[in-house]
Each structure stands twice: as structure tokens, then as C-alpha cells.
């Protein structure tokens, strides 16, 4: 047996570290946390005894703990090497307690998994920092108390099965309040003036009026004045400017940029970054610091000068804005700046390159730019058109990287201007006054929600991803695409001295991967804001984070913090018993139906909000109609409810086509046309309650043509086609659907690749055991009646949707096993 036992929390991390230490060291994994509070709240925390927690060894970790305990007894020295943050410190403390280790057991920390970092950590051990442990302990116990005391209030006053949480409820509140802001927003129209001028050599000069006209009349007056106007260059002004690089990534900025540039969900970004860290590619990925060590800056300098030249290097140290950030920690960076790309998994490759570019750019020179502004005089008006552009005179950091933006509208006036002269007469090609509408604040994406939480001081790097996952999993929030709506927009065009006015249709409000509150999410938020404002108050939640920071710094006792919090909180819980359930907004009486004389109300049910005609207990059963997705329980009017009740019931038969009935229905995924035993989604431009047979036939024919257009070819005398469904892009063959593999898109898939996919799926279904891992015979990937799953001992672990079972590694299986709830194996 080796003299030294090193314990980490991840098997992948253990494998990497063991390669850097000599034969006297053996590295083992705890597979994450080994102890936690028991599931029953009344036995987990002794509130009367200074909130003393009762920790228990997790049932699935008993074997791991026993093995580590045996190894620890036979080793001369034990080294606790979990992650260098509060959670990592907490895992080390729980290991010490569970294994019966001494208080002076050596604790080593490192921010990157490289040979030098590991060996340096061995030379500079410390003991467990109980201040960090207590900060994590306070967070865990506070969240447990809030959840276990507040959730039952929701069960009795709102609806069974609901839950509340200190950070999750605040995150939902942000989304709910943004949605209400959008619903209350009234767009204001105005007219934006733009012009195109013909220049020698076929070039075009774009210009705009720096103000908008509020009315169509004012816009028309201006355009009419320009019919016989002469346009000339009034002035040219060129100013030098500089652009500075963004700081290297923190956890939140990495999540935001990976969302913008790579389309990754927050949880995906953290999962991929974890793998890069554990394989020694990047520094620790949970950090709120933007600083780099002197060693890292020196390595960056060498890489920049070698690849781009000395003039591209500019040393700088970024000051972290977050006061609670630990400056001793570093931003996320590559461990080796000489390596600008890696091989292997495409997601890891893309994220690594993003991290490398951002870190290397932070140590590069500013970009030098000449910004030119041309003012264009109009002979018949006092107004002046403006054209602007810029020329990059020295690329600097732009040679490597430019930070993305959340604003969906790109700046159209950053092109390089063609050569111009003061006094130059311009040839007008077209002048346009286009109606534009103000827009409400954008709905949150995962990345912009993280940014909002960070700006308000809510949560910390380790909490953003699990918070978002929780509110989606509990169905307080949905992440989805939504089609836009049509509206009329007027335009006035001056061309060849003729004015043409027209009204066009434009689509607005199209949403891509945005976060929408569900009706129950809105209802719970409204209830908590009204009755437990402190718990969902932004400042209160941020102040709690500051107190956790003070505990970590040894400035505050965690038990005192809990006492300060619990008194008022528990009093509010007790007072909530007097809240009348009828006062909670889960049901609203809207009025009396003039046709039937029955009450009309809007309510929240198991499957969402609905309008009810009539009352329970009456001789005739009430009528129920679901709200449209765009309608809200709290804002639905009596008139809107009557329109819903007057609609024909679905499914409804609208006629016969090719001797088959055409039926319009509505399912979980939206309205559809059922014809010839097939279902075709009904486009959003059609109303399922008013669509006629002729229109339905057009939709069916278009769908048939689209299927033929998407065809890749024939396989086994059957068409192989592609499409996009609820679970992403797929290949369709012989009535079966096959999800695309990693790295494949609808544009890249070929017939040959599609056939490979089909055959692989068949092979998957034909074999009972897909994969067995020789490293651990009790872990297998199995194909079951309801799809593939992971078998870990006697546990069955579901494989997440979109995950290719063939690509799973042993580490992937173990990680999924750690994160998944325990389910009984089917007999």
C-alpha cells in the first residue's frame, strides 16, 4: 500500500493527479459529497440547539466511505485535495468526519491541475479552514430551513407539490416581473429616416437622420421637402479612438459568452468546463475574480510575442469589481498559453478556444481606430443626415477576440466610409421614412439571467447553473422558442423624385431560447411577494450572501447569523396560517355569462390556467376551456374569457379530403391537422378554431413538399428525410425518428451519415447490453423497454435526453449517477 492517500471528489480529477505524483501516492475519489442532511427536515436540524445539523452518510456512499476509511488506516499520511472553494472545503471536512481523520489532516489546494501546481500544493499543505466550512454550512442549513418551512405554506394556501427556495424564488421573481413589464408595455411608433447615395465606382453611402419623426404627417412633410433637394457633404470629421479588451472570464461571464457565441446552456457550459479543468486544460472554473497571476501574465506575454510580435503585447491586471471576490484566486484561463486549440470532444474544443482567446486578448494591446463622421446638408431643410464609419489602423487584441453583446440589434453604421470630400454633391438613390416601434425590455435568456443575478449580488459562481436548472425542473419557468406576431408598419419612399407610401406586414416579438414564467410560477411569485417579501427581496438575498462572505472571513459566527434570521422568518411563517386560501389568486370571478346566466371564472389547474363556465355542484357540470399560451391568468379579462368559451371545441372535423376526414386538434405541442392517420403541426398564422378545409389542404400539401425537399435519398426502398422536432433535429426513416449525433446539423447530415445513424440505433435496440466498463463491472449502459439507461449496482439512472449512449465514458456514468435521484430497479 502507498504511503500517501490523496482524496479528491472526482474520478477524472483523480486519474489526472495520480499521473503527476510518484509511486508513494495513491489518489482516490469520494465521488462528490459523502454526507448530507437527512431528507426529513424535523430530524435534520436542531433549531433549539444553535441550529446543530445532524449529518448522515448518503446511502449510495456507504461503500465508498468504507473503502476510503480502510485505505486511510493503512496509509501513513492522508491528503484532502478537494476543490479550492467553500463547497470543496465542506467536502474535505465531511470526509474528515466520516473517515475519523485527525483535525490536523493535511489539506492541499490548487487552482489548476498541472504537475507544478500539484507538486507545489504538496509542499505547502494547510489544515481545514473551518470558516469556509461554516459559510457553506450556513448556506446549506438556511436553504433547508426556508425550503422546509415555506414549502408547506404553499401546499396549504396555493397548490400541493410546490416548493420555495432562497435563491430560486428570487430568480423566478426576476423573470415574472420582466414578463409583467413586457405585458404592460405599449409600443410607441415613430418614423426613422435613412438614405442611400450613389458614389463613383458603384459604391453606396448609407446615412441616417439622427432623430425620428413622431407622426406620419411630419415624416411625409420632410420627405416631400427632399424631392428637389440637393445633398452635399457639409463636413468631415475624423477622430482617433481606442478599444480595450475585456477581462479574462469569471464563471458568470464565461456562461454569458458561451451562450452568445456557442449557444450553450449554462449547465452545459459548466459541465464542459469541469471536464477541461479535470483534464488539466484550464484553471478552476468557479471564480468571480478577473485577476491573473504574475506567472500566467508572463506566459501570456511569451505566447503573444511569439505569435503576433512584441507590439501586440500590453501587460495589464484587471481589478475585480465584486468586493467579495478572492483576489488570490484567478480568472478562468488556459494552463498553457502556448496551446491555442485542443483535440477531442467538439464542445470542449470550442469552449477551450473561447477561454484561450479571452485570456490571451486580455494581455494584448488596445485596438487603434479612426472614426469618421460625415454630415450631409439638405438644401431644402435645416436637418442634416449623418454617415459614420470606422477604420482599424492597428488590430491589437481584435486580431484574436471581440466580446459578444446581448443586444440583438447590431450597429449598422460601423462600416468603413468610402472617400469623401467637403462640398461633394451626392446622387440620391433612395430616401426612406420607415415606421419603427419602441421595444420592451428583452426577456431573459439563461445567460442574461445570470448577469442580472450577479449584478444584484444574488448567488455565487457555484449557484447560478443549479438555480436555473431547479426553476426549470420545477416548472416555474420554461425555456422555449416562440413565434412572433404580425403587425402593420408604414413606410414612405422617395426614389427618382417620386414618393410612394405603403403599408407592410412585419413580424415582431420572435423569441429564441428565452425564459418564460409559467402560470404557477407567476402565482407562487405573487403569493411570496405579498406575504413573504423579505424572502424574495433582492436586497435581503444579496445581504445574505454578504453575511456568508463574512462568515468565510471569520468576521461573523454562523450560528449568530442563523439566530438573527430565524426569529423574524419563523414569526412570518406562523402568521401565514391566517391567510385565507380564497384570497390567493389561483381563482378569479370575472362575471356572469349573458347567454347562460352562469358564473365565469379563471382558475389554475394541474395542466395550466383555464376558464370555467358554471360552478361545481350545479346539476349541469361546468365547462372548461384552456387559455392560449399568450394569455395570462392574472390579466385575462371577462371579454377575453367569453371569446374563449364561444370558440368551437377541439378536436373538430372540418371536411373530407381524398375520402379521408380532416380533423383539427390541439395537443401538448400545439394545434395540429390529423389526416390519413398522420399529424401535421398547424402553423401559428392559422387559427385552429376558424381554419377552413381549403386552408388545411394547403398546409398539408406544403408539409408534403417540405418532406420531399428534406429527403436525403432512398434506403431499403424507403425515403430518408430530415426535420426538427421537440427534441431537436432528426432523421426520419420508415416511420421512425433518429436524433442526430454530436456535431451533426440538418445542413451537414448526408445520406451516408444518416444510414450510419439508423444502423447504430438498430444495433442499440438489438443488444441488451450496450457497453460494459472493465474498470467497474457493476456499471453498465443498458438498453431497456423505455430506452437506454445506466445500471450502477442495483440502481437505474436515466440518461438525459440528447445524450448519445454510445459516447458515455465511465466518468460520465459516475457523474450522472451522483446527480440523479435514486430509483428502484424494475423486476
Question: Can you offer a commentary on this structure?
Answer:
- With 827 residues, the chain is an alpha+beta fold.
- Among the domains are: 4-128, Rossmann fold (3-Layer(aba) Sandwich); 251-365, Topoisomerase I, domain 4, CATH 1.10.290; 586-646, no CATH class; 652-709, no CATH class; 767-827, no CATH class.
- It is built from 21 helices and 34 strands.
- The strands form nine sheets. Strands 9, 10, 11, 12, 13, 14, 16 and 17 form an eight-stranded antiparallel β-sheet that branches. It has a four-stranded parallel β-sheet with strand order 2-1-7-8. A four-stranded antiparallel β-sheet has the order 19-20-21-22, with helices on one face.
- Strand 24 and strand 25 form a beta hairpin.
- Helix 10 crosses helix 12 (346-361).
- The longest helix is centred in the N-terminal third of the chain and has 28 residues, at 130-157.
- It is globular.
- Mean pLDDT is 87; it is low at 408-413, 766-770 and 823-827.
Helical residue percent band? 25-40%
Instruction: Give the beta-strand count.
Output: 34
Class inferred from helices and paired strands: alpha+beta
The first-level CATH class of the domain at 4-128 is given as: Alpha Beta
Shape: globular
Q: Give the helix tally.
A: 21
Low-confidence stretches: 408-413, 766-770, 823-827
Amino acid at each position: 500500500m502507498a504511503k500517501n492517500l490523496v482524496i479528491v471528489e472526482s474520478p477524472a480529477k483523480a486519474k489526472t493527479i495520480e499521473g503527476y505524483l510518484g509511486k508513494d501516492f495513491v489518489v482516490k475519489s469520494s465521488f462528490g459529497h459523502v454526507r448530507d442532511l437527512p431528507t426529513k427536515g424535523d430530524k435534520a436540524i436542531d433549531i433549539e440547539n444553535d441550529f446543530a445539523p445532524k449529518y448522515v452518510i448518503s446511502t449510495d456512499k456507504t461503500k465508498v466511505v468504507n473503502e476510503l476509511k480502510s485505505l486511510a488506516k493503512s496509509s501513513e499520511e492522508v491528503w484532502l485535495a478537494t476543490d479550492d472553494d467553500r463547497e470543496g472545503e465542506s467536502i474535505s471536512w465531511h470526509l474528515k468526519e466520516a473517515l475519523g481523520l485527525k483535525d490536523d489532516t493535511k489539506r492541499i489546494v490548487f487552482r489548476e491541475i498541472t504537475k507544478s501546481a500539484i507538486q507545489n500544493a504538496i509542499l505547502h499543505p494547510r489544515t481545514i479552514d473551518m470558516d469556509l466550512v461554516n459559510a457553506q454550512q450556513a448556506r446549506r442549513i438556511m436553504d433547508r430551513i426556508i425550503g422546509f418551512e415555506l414549502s408547506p405554506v404553499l401546499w396549504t394556501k396555493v397548490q400541493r407539490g410546490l416548493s420555495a427556495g432562497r435563491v430560486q424564488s428570487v430568480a423566478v421573481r426576476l423573470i415574472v416581473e420582466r414578463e409583467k413589464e413586457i405585458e404592460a408595455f405599449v409600443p410607441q411608433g415613430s418614423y426613422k429616416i435613412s438614405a442611400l447615395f450613389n458614389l463613383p465606382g458603384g459604391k453606396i453611402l448609407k446615412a441616417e437622420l439622427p432623430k425620428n419623426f413622431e407622426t406620419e404627417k411630419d415624416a411625409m412633410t420632410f420627405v416631400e421637402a427632399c424631392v428637389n433637394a440637393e445633398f452635399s457633404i457639409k463636413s468631415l470629421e475624423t477622430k482617433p479612438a481606442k478599444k480595450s479588451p475585456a477581462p479574462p472570464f469569471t464563471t458568470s461571464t464565461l456562461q454569458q459568452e458561451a451562450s452568445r457565441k456557442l449557444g450553450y446552456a449554462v449547465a452545459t457550459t459548466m459541465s464542459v468546463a469541469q471536464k477541461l479543468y479535470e483534464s488539466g486544460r484550464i484553471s478552476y472554473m468557479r471564480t468571480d475574480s478577473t485577476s491573473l497571476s504574475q506567472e500566467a501574465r508572463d506566459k501570456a506575454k511569451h505566447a503573444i510575442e511569439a505569435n503576433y510580435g512584441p507590439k501586440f503585447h500590453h501587460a495589464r491586471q484587471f481589478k475585480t469589481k465584486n468586493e467579495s471576490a478572492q483576489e488570490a484566486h484567478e480568472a478562468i484561463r488556459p494552463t498553457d498559453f502556448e496551446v491555442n486549440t485542443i483535440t477531442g470532444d467538439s464542445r470542449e474544443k470550442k469552449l477551450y478556444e473561447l477561454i484561450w482567446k479571452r485570456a490571451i486578448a486580455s494581455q494584448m494591446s488596445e485596438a487603434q481606430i479612426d472614426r469618421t463622421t460625415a454630415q450631409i446638408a439638405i438644401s431644402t431643410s435645416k436637418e442634416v443626415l449623418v454617415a459614420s464609419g470606422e477604420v482599424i489602423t492597428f488590430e491589437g487584441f481584435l486580431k484574436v477576440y471581440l466580446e459578444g453583446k446581448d443586444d440583438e440589434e447590431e450597429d449598422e453604421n460601423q462600416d468603413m466610409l468610402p472617400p469623401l470630400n467637403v462640398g461633394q454633391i451626392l446622387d440620391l438613390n433612395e430616401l426612406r421614412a420607415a415606421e419603427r416601434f419602441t421595444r420592451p425590455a428583452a426577456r431573459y435568456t439563461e445567460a442574461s439571467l445570470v448577469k442580472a443575478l450577479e449584478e444584484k449580488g444574488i448567488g455565487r459562481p457555484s449557484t447560478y447553473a443549479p438555480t436555473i436548472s431547479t426553476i426549470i425542473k420545477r416548472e416555474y419557468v420554461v425555456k422555449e422558442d416562440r413565434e412572433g406576431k404580425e403587425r402593420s408598419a408604414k413606410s414612405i419612399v422617395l426614389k427618382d423624385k417620386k414618393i410612394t407610401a405603403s403599408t407592410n406586414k412585419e413580424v415582431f416579438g420572435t423569441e429564441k431560447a428565452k425564459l418564460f414564467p409559467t402560470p404557477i410560477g407567476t402565482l407562487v411569485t405573487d403569493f411570496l411577494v405579498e406575504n413573504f417579501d423579505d424572502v424574495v427581496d433582492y436586497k435581503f438575498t444579496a445581504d445574505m450572501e454578504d453575511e456568508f462572505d463574512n462568515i468565510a472571513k471569520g468576521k461573523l459566527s454562523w450560528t449568530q447569523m442563523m439566530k438573527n434570521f430565524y426569529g423574524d422568518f419563523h414569526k412570518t411563517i406562523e402568521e401565514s396560517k391566517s391567510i385565507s386560501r380564497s384570497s390567493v389568486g389561483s381563482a378569479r370571478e370575472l362575471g356572469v355569462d349573458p347567454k347562460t346566466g352562469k358564473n365565469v371564472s379563471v382558475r389554475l389547474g394541474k395542466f395550466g390556467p383555464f376558464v370555467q363556465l358554471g360552478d361545481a355542484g350545479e346539476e349541469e357540470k361546468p365547462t372548461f376551456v384552456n387559455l392560449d399560451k399568450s394569455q395570462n391568468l392574472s390579466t385575462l379579462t371577462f371579454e377575453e374569457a367569453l371569446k374563449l368559451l364561444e370558440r368551437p371545441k377541439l378536436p373538430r372535423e372540418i371536411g373530407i379530403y381524398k375520402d379521408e376526414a380532416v380533423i383539427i386538434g390541439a395537443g401538448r405541442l400545439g394545434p395540429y391537422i390529423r389526416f390519413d392517420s398522420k399529424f401535421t403541426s398547424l402553423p401559428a398564422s392559422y387559427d385552429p378554431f376558424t381554419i377552413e378545409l381549403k386552408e388545411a389542404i394547403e398546409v398539408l400539401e406544403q408539409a408534403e413538399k417540405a418532406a420531399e425537399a428534406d429527403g436525403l435519398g432512398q434506403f431499403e426502398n424507403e425515403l430518408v428525410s430530415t426535420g426538427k422536432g421537440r427534441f431537436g433535429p432528426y432523421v426520419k426513416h420508415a416511420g421512425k425518428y433518429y436524433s442526430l449525433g454530436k456535431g451533426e446539423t440538418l445542413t451537414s447530415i448526408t445520406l451516408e451519415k444518416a444510414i450510419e445513424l439508423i444502423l447504430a440505433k438498430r444495433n442499440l435496440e438489438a443488444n441488451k447490453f450496450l457497453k460494459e466498463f472493465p474498470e467497474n463491472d457493476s456499471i453498465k449502459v443498458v438498453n431497456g423497454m423505455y430506452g437506454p439507461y445506466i445500471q450502477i449496482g442495483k440502481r437505474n439512472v436515466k440518461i438525459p435526453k440528447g445524450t448519445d449512449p454510445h459516447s458515455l465514458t465511465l466518468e460520465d456514468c459516475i457523474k450522472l449517477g451522483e446527480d440523479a435521484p435514486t430509483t428502484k430497479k424494475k423486476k
